[in-house]
Design goal:
Layout (H helix, E strand, L loop, with lengths): L14 H13 L13 H16 L11 H4 L4 E7 L4 E7 L5 H5 L1
Antiparallel strand pairs: 1-2
Length: 104
């Protein structure tokens, strides 16, 4: 079981969400999360550095954010846009590498 290392502030109306996450984390169903409503410069640096550190290990880290400064620190992004008929997902960031090229 992972160590239960959940901390921070949650508004009372979101207490049930926090409790559900804590239960999932304790059981191993969730392995981690971060949620920020607003970020000052110092907090942004802490969040971005933490995500970068996690990504250096054998972990896949996903982030959904509207904070441009945080999105710019993520090396690969999927930008979702839509028009009247459909949604479009575009990959941005690091180039896609063919595994055969790596082993050749």
């Amino acid at each position: 079981m992972p160590e239960n290392n959940i901390h921070g502030f949650v508004a009372e109306e979101f207490r049930a969400v926090r409790d559900a996450f804590e239960a999932n984390f304790a059981s191993g169903a969730d392995v981690g999360a971060s949620c920020c409503g607003t970020l000052d410069g110092e907090t942004l640096e802490v969040v971005a550095t933490t995500l970068e550190t996690l990504a250096q290990g054998n972990r896949m880290v996903g982030v959904v954010t509207h904070v441009t400064a945080l999105a710019e620190r993520v090396p690969v992004r999927y930008r979702v846009s839509r028009n009247a008929r459909t949604s479009i997902v575009a990959r941005e960031g690091l180039a896609v590498v063919d595994e055969e090229e790596l082993t050749a």
